[in-house]
Amino acid sequence: VRIVESGGGLMQPGGSLRLSCAASGFAFRWYRMCWYRQAPGKERELVASISSSGGTLNLADSVKGRFTISRDNAINTVYLQMTSLKPEDTVVYYCNTETRKFNWGQGTQVTVSS
Question: In percent, how much of the chain has pLDDT > 70?
Answer without folding.
Answer: 100
